[in-house]
Design goal:
The chain is about 20% helix and about 15% strand. The protein has helices at about 40-60, 100-110, 115, 140-145, 185-190, 230-235, 250-255, 270-275, 295-305, and strands spanning about 80-85, 90-95, 120-125, 135-140, 155-160, 170, 195-200, 215-220, 245-250, 285-290, 310-315. The longest helix has 24 residues, at about 40-60.
């Protein structure tokens, strides 16, 4: 059936899965959400923007790039920046760059200023597909070792790895090698009103000890270690408002042959069964499962447990080079399933 546009009535319906009403600025229910004074935050963020811009100009000069020439190479590595915009009674701050460069360290130092953090409503981190030894590690330890809190932060996004990326993005604690080690839990514990969270790898069990009564949307990107996320979520009680879960299965499916994987490197079906049967799924209306290893019968069994759940399977695994197929250095047959020609 075609979608038929409804006549405009002068007021838009509330977003799917959420309810709200227009509030007057004097409404006492919103007293704790009144717009903060932005002066200090805007000054500090503007100074940060100018400092990062000077850094990119120096980098361009070092590489003898003519930035006045519109036909000159547009190198992503020289586009480091912080974008700031007013948003919903606060500020949206977006960092684009490499997590090992000075601009990222400067950004964390700026965010450690409580006067800046008080104004931030939305915070995101992304950058070009660059890294070392196949990974790009986001280390927020310097920020999280401070006493700063984000009393207005509603949305936090650290971009997950895309299928075509050469480098796997992950949050890791400084001083470790690819160990998340509770950093995501430490970050969200500073944001009591957090509603949306996107992270490139799964948090450890400490995440489920942090009260997150407002978290409605959660996306977990694909990493080599799921840290038993599905099992931990099944036994959790800290996410009563969770309505949308987007979970990516372990990348070990694409990087390690089945007979060489560690036990439970990939989430077992029994863990999904426990999650679907748990109270943690009671408020959920949408579950997106990416790069699943479950078969049709298992997926349909899960759907039968929660028939009203919008349950979507997405297969968008990490890509692989055709020239490497013959070497059998990684699982690749899922990348070329072909058309079976039958229903």
């Amino acid at each position: 059936m075609r979608n038929v546009k409804q006549p405009i009535t002068g007021r838009r319906p509330p977003p799917s899965g959420q309810r709200y009403h227009r509030a007057h600025h004097t409404d006492v229910r919103y007293a704790h959400m009144t717009a903060p004074p932005f002066g200090h935050a805007q000054q500090q963020l503007l100074a940060l923007q100018q400092r990062i811009h000077a850094f990119t100009l120096d980098s361009a000069a070092e590489h003898e790039l003519d930035i006045e020439d519109p036909a000159s190479p547009l190198w992503e590595a020289l586009q480091e920046r912080v974008t700031v915009a007013p948003l919903y009674g606060g500020l949206h701050v977006a960092f684009f760059g490499n997590p090992w460069e000075e601009p990222f360290a400067w950004t964390l130092a700026c965010l450690s200023d409580q006067g800046v953090a008080d104004a931030i409503m939305s915070l995101s981190f992304t950058g070009p597909d660059e890294g070392a030894n196949g990974t790009r590690e986001w280390e927020f330890t310097a920020l999280l070792d401070s006493d700063v809190r984000f009393p207005r932060l509603r949305s936090l996004s650290i971009s997950p790895t895309e299928p075509a990326d050469h480098n796997m993005s992950l949050v890791q604690r400084a001083g470790t090698i690819m160990e998340e080690d509770g950093e995501i839990a430490r970050f969200v514990s500073r944001a009591p009103y957090l509603s949306e969270l996107v992270v490139p790898n799964a948090p450890d069990a400490a995440f489920f000890e942090v009260p997150l009564p407002h978290l409605h949307s959660l996306r977990i990107g694909g990493g080599s270690d799921t840290q038993r996320f599905i099992d931990n979520l099944a036994g959790s009680r800290n996410l009563p408002a969770l309505g949308l879960l987007d979970f990516t299965e372990s990348t070990e499916l694409q990087f390690v042959w089945a007979d060489a994987r560690e036990t439970d490197a990939v989430t077992p079906f029994a863990a999904y069964e426990r999650l679907f049967a748990s109270d943690a799924f009671d408020a959920l209306h949408t579950f997106r499962l990416r790069n699943s290893a479950l078969d049709v019968a298992q997926l349909q069994t899960l759907q039968a447990v929660r028939p009203g759940l919008s349950f979507m399977v997405i297969q968008a695994a990490t890509g692989g080079y055709v020239s490497h197929f013959a070497k059998d250095v990684f699982p690749w047959r899922h990348l070329v399933p072909g058309d079976p020609g039958t229903r």
